[in-house]
Design brief:
Layout (H helix, E strand, L loop, with lengths): L2 E4 L2 E12 L4 H4 L5 H6 L1 H4 L4 E2 L4 E13 L2 E5 L21 H7 L9 E3 L5 H4 L3 E4 L2 E4 L5 E5 H7 L16 H11 L3 E4 L3 E3 L4 E5 L8 E7 L2 E7 L6 H4 L11 H18 L2 E4 L8 E6 L2 E7 L12
Parallel strand pairs: 5-6, 6-9, 9-10, 14-15
Antiparallel strand pairs: 1-2, 2-4, 3-4, 4-5, 7-8, 11-12, 12-13, 13-14, 15-16, 16-17
């Protein structure tokens, strides 16, 4: 199963990539403890870690929401032909658009793209190569981006990132062409209402404009959390950041806030990069959280083809 219903909103999972990304567990989440990886290894394998010594498996995927007659994409992965030196996303060649079509969505059908933040592996399919130029992949869509991220990642503004050159070229090939085409909606402040079911909320820390898309429809609750969670161990150790956070303190606070929101409302959490079943329910466990269950999506496991 790759589609579920949450109240009046349909959610589909569309894969771009799944597999090892070259990080050992504690290089990926350096603030996590060795003990948590060892204690949870039996179920973290093979969906989330694999091999010996273990390396992290991660997914690039887009969440497709159908809400109030509109088609909405949450994050757009790495993209094809993008120069991303030193990363697993360098010059990818995948059948993402074919996978999207198999989910019933053509590029011209998309009404709205939500970029939870502007890292390379969240904006790649914002654009495609057309005769040597980058053009919007989804020509009829508006692209929602928080202004904080737009300003932070614009090279003209000269900001320094913890990634060093790890996000090089991204603004130029995946953000600026969309903006120049007049398709960006740069939202500001703490929140932006999309429709009666969907609301964007600022959750800065991972990047200055990192956001979470919350869903409330009937009795169903969910949150599409981008990179607030890279690994399930961050549910068990919520103060453990990945190695990619610009503001570690704000990132921890945002993660705890979202985990608490989901635990108190029986909400599903949809991180950007989880393999396995992709989304999880959580419960409070003292000062931490526990995984209560998984979404009914078909599990990604090593060896699966996209």
């Amino acid at each position: 199963m790759e589609t579920i219903e949450l109240g009046d909103v349909t959610v589909s999972r569309v894969r771009e990539f799944y597999g090892p990304i070259g990080f050992t567990p504690r290089a990926f989440v350096p603030e996590s403890s060795e003990e948590v990886w060892e204690a949870q290894e039996s179920w973290l394998r093979p969906e989330f870690i694999a091999g010996e010594p273990p390396v992290v498996n991660a997914a690039l995927q887009t969440w497709v929401l159908r809400s109030e007659g509109r088609v909405i994409l949450v994050d757009t992965g790495g993209g094809n032909n993008k120069p991303r030196p030193g990363t697993p996303w360098d010059h990818l060649e995948t059948d993402f658009l074919g996978n999207l079509a198999r989910a019933g969505v053509r590029p011209e059908d998309v009404d709205l793209v939500v970029n939870t933040h502007l890292h390379a592996d969240h904006v790649g399919w914002n654009t495609r190569l057309d005769g040597g130029s980058w053009v919007p992949t989804f020509p009829n869509a508006d692209y929602l981006i928080h202004r904080n991220d737009f300003e932070f990642w614009n090279p003209a503004n000269g900001h320094t990132s913890v990634l060093g050159d790890g996000n090089a070229h991204v603004f130029e090939d995946s953000v600026a062409p969309v903006h120049e085409a007049g398709r960006t909606l740069l939202w500001e402040g703490d929140g932006y209402r999309i429709d009666a079911h969907l609301r964007l909320e600022l959750a800065a820390g991972h990047t200055p404009g990192s956001s979470v898309l919350t869903l409330a429809s009937g009795s169903e609750r969910a949150a599409f959390v981008g990179d607030l969670l890279h690994s399930p161990v961050q549910i068990l150790e919520p103060d453990a950041n990945s190695c990619f956070c610009e503001d570690p303190g704000r990132s921890r606070a945002a993660r705890r806030r979202v985990l608490g929101w989901a635990a108190d409302r029986n909400g599903l959490l949809f991180p950007a990069h989880f393999g396995g079943h992709g989304a999880a329910e959580v419960a409070r466990d003292g000062g931490r959280f526990a995984i209560k269950g998984w979404a009914p999506f078909t599990s990604y496991t090593p060896g699966d083809e996209g």
